[in-house]
Every structure is written in C-alpha cells, then in structure tokens.
Amino acid sequence: MSRAAQSMLLVLIGAAVLWITVGSGEYVNYVRPGFRYLLAPAAIVLLVLGAAGVRREWRGTRDDDHPAEHGHDHSRGPRVAWLLCLPVLALFLIAPPALGSFTAARGTGRTAPPPAAPTEGFRPLPRTGAPVAMSMGEFIGRGYLAQTGDPASLQGVPVRLTGFVAPGVKGEGGWRIVRLKIACCAGDAVPFPVTVRGLPRPPSDTWVQVVGVWTPPATGRSRTVVQAVRGRSLQKIEKPRTPYE
Amino acid sequence: MSDHAGLREAEDDLLPPAEWGREPASPGSRAAWMFGVLAVVLVGGRIWLAPHVSARALDAWSTIFVAVCVQALPFLVFGVALSAAITVFVPASVWRRVLPRRTGAAVPVAGMMGAVLPGCECASVPVAGGLMARGVAPAAALTFLLAAPAINPVVLVATAVAFPGSPEMVAGRFAASLIVAVLAGWTWLLVGKGEWIKAPSRPRADPAAGRLEAFGQAMRHDVMHAGGFLVVGAAAAATINVAIPADRVDAVAGIPVASVLLLALLAVLMSICSEADAFVAASLSQFSTTARLAFLVVGPMVDLKLIALQAGFFGRRFAVRFVPLTFVLAVSVSALVGGVLS
C-alpha cells in the first residue's frame, strides 16, 4: 500500500466518522450518544494526519532514501490496511440500521437482570390516572420490585412505554415491546422486553408507544420472568433519536 | 501451520520472507489449493449457512461490525498518537538508564515501565527490539513487550469504559498481565539462550526529516497496522455475535474450564488490538468473569498478528518457544486471578 493511498484512506475514514458524528447523527445507531466527544476529535486527527500526508505527496517532497527502521520500511503500509475500507464502505453504502427484533429474539433465552433501583429508591408514582412515561429499564426495575415486594407500588398505574415490536414467546400470549440496552456499543446490546396483552400486534420492528397497566406475573413463576402489561392504547411513532437505552 | 502460511501471505511486505525459511510453493499448485478450499467453502456454505442467512441477520452483522469499529477508533487514534510521541520524542537510551543493572531486578521494573507506553501490541514489538539493540537484557525487554500493551493507561481506561461499574475487571487485568509478563521474563532469564533470539541488526535511526514528520510517519504506520487487524477482529466479533446460536455459546459459557480455554483461543484467533479488546470482551456477556479476564490477558500477549510480528523481528526459533510459554502462563495466571476476584 503506497503512502499516497494510506493518506487518502485516512482522509476517507476521518470524513466518514465525522459525517456520522456531527453530520447525520447516525452514530447513535452504533455507540452511546456521549461518545461524540471522543469520536469527533479522533476523526479530526485522522483528517489532519491524512491531509498532511496528501499535501506532502502533492508537493513531491518524498524522502525515498528514508532508512528502513527495525526490519521493515515504514513508508509502505501493510496489505491488511486495505481492510480499513470495509467499515467506510459499509457506512456509506449500507448505512447499517439500529439493531432490532432480530437481536431481541436472539436474547430470549437469557433475560437481562432487572436494572437496580436508584439508591434513594424509585420516586412514588402519581395517582392521577394519567399515563406515566417511563423507560423500559425503569418499568422492568419497578416491576421486579413490585413482584418481589409491594405490588401496590405499581398496580393500577397506567404507564407509557416506548420501544419496537417483536414477536411474543409461545405460552406467554400477546407480543413484546422491546428496547435494547447498550453499555458501550451495539456489540453488547441486551434486550429489555415487556409482554403486551390485549392489543393487536403491529408488524415487527415498528416503533410504538404503548399505554398499559402492569399485570402481576402468575405466582410460582421464576423471578426473572418478563414483566407484562395489559394494553390500553397503541400509537405508532417515528424511530426515536436515540434507539438504545 | 496453515495459519502461519496465511499470515505470511497477508503480511509479506511486513515480514522478510527469508525469515520463514520456507520453500515457495509453485504458483500452479498454490492456485489449485486455493481453488479447492474455495470450492469446499462454497459448497459447505450453501448446505449449512445459506438456510440461516436472512436480510435481518446481515443487517445485524453489519451494524455490530461498524459499531465495534466506530467504538474502538478513538482509543486507537489517541493510543497511537501517544505511542508515536513517546517513540519519537523519548530516545531509547533513557529506558536503559532507568533500568537496574541486575537483570533479575530489571525484569519487574521493565514490566512496570510498560505502564507508561500507551500503545498496542504492534507498537511494543518494535520498541522491545529497539531496547534489545541498545543493550537492554532480552528478558527485561521481553517483559516490557508483554506488559506494555496490556497495562498502559489508555488500555486500562478503555477497559473501565467497557465494563462500567466493575472496577475489579480493570484491577484484575492489570494484576494478571503484570504477573504474566514478569514470570515470562524470569523464565526466559533462567532457561532462555541468547542464540534463540536473532537480535535486530538495525537500531532505530533518527530520521533526518524532522521530528514532526517522524511523528506523523509513526502514527500513520501504527494506524494502518493496528486498524487493519481491528477490522478483522470486528468482523470476527460480529460473526460470533450473529452466527453462533446463543444457547450453544451459553452451554460452553457454563463450563468453567472450557469457557476459559475457548475465550483464550478466541483472543488468539481474533487478534484484536489491546486498545479495543475490552469492548469485545464486554459484548461476550454470557461468559464468566474469569473467562473474559483470560480473553483480556491473553489477547495483548499472544495473537496471530503478534506471532507474525515476533517471528519477523526476533526469528522463528524465538517465536516457537516464547509464544507457547506466554500462552500457558497467561491462561493459568488469569484463571487464578479470576478465581480470586469472583
């Protein structure tokens, strides 16, 4: 791989990363939103590095008699570096979407452990009868607490959940609304599923908001059961700006 | 050995072919072999793979592949920048002045010094070669080589980011990697023979082109080397994530010894840069802490690209002894440390 090709590849990578970070905002499909503060400077460093290399090639000030250091010549890149084109091509040509029901279905065997409650405990829910919007993680955490402790803390309160549609599991009835939780990047996504009963199932991967009331799991079931709601209303929505929790 | 042959093909402008002492296969027979392998892969893929590949599986694959690349990129870039700065602006003679005269004592000091070279394993091999060429005892230089990619601040920060809320993973990685590096150095001091290492003949020459130019050159070189292998690792991680049925991996993940060995082997095969491997380890969430620790300890010390680099710099006679020694030490020490942690 020649030095000109290396420099231009660096410019390409830097431009692609900068584009998905500050241009299109697609980076939230792959990493947590906070990562933009790392991604943008890294992309700029790559752009500058590549541009400096291209400028030097342009001016023709190549030092070809540059001594070969420790066994191999630094001026020629390894062939394996061509592979760096692959993620750039994928970003521009495929623009991989956020993970959806395929990944959620793969995790059905193992349910994520219920998220721990904040140290001061969940705030008490308002009892006005209006639906309370909450994240899937919070709902599952509250559901787990209600299941193991005081069911009255959640029973009868309508909640509004946002997620995508995934098929249900046999024997459970209904279908599932799922939001994926990532710790770092999409590679470590774990599903937060909630079973919805009493509403018609939209097509898989449709983003929806469901208003429903928590139904306590049947007694005698294991503690890691998937929490369920009795649905009251369903609204199709656009994909949220941050697809993961 | 087919792994070595494959590597050599991919890297033949990185490694001097003469080092391998291998008779070149005639172009005709090589093409026939390639064709045979390709035919087997295609037929096998049609029978076993094609029924399971759907558009949604491909989508998930490409998302995870891009996600691992994007996630690792900032750490790679900043790590390489720091490594290039130290390589260019700190002369190697400083290292020799800092090390104790007695080799036995120099080994642990060299291991601790690994904590200040924020590079990945591609960077540490040339630096260790430079140290040897400037008179540092091989055992100490090798300890540095093993420790530097695993316990430097960039890698530890990346590990802490990848495992939020479990600082024991960072501590375990630091402790286990340092212990393995020091033990390997002492073992080499006791039983190693000088003639096994082909000392690098050319010391690092200061380029006349100016420091800033040398800095850019070193950075470009490291990004190209490490980035290419990172893409390989991301593709392997995405494939494992999408293709291997979760219950089958879970079945292995439940067996203590098998899971440790499986992840250690995966670390060797996937050859992920140490600045990025913590994120892959975090995605293997069905495995035990011990198994993931083994992945993090083995990866920066033994993997396919390192074997190739070490054989290139120090000769094959060195690599066939040093690589198994490091692998066995890394697996057993991380099993012990993982047992203490969990």
Task: Give your account of this protein's structure.
The complex is a heterodimer of chains A (245) and B (342). By secondary structure, chain A is of the alpha/beta class. Chain A has five helices and six strands, in the order ααααβαβββββ. Chain A folds into two domains: 3-96, no CATH class; 102-236, OB fold (Dihydrolipoamide Acetyltransferase, E2P), CATH 2.40.50. In chain A, 30% of the residues lie in helices and 18% in strands. In chain A, strand 2 (158-166) and strand 3 form a beta hairpin. In chain A, helix 1 packs antiparallel against helix 2 and helix 1 (3-23) crosses helix 3. Chain B is mostly helical and 342 residues long. Chain B has one domain (54-341). Residues 1-19 and 201-206 of chain B have low confidence and may be disordered. Classes of the chains: A alpha/beta (245), B mainly alpha (342). At the A-B interface, helix 1, helix 2, helix 3 and helix 4 of A face helix 3, helix 6, helix 10, helix 11 and helix 13 of B.
Brief write-up:
Chain A is 30% helix and 18% strand. Chain A has 245 residues and is of the alpha/beta class. Chain B has 342 residues and is mainly alpha-helical.
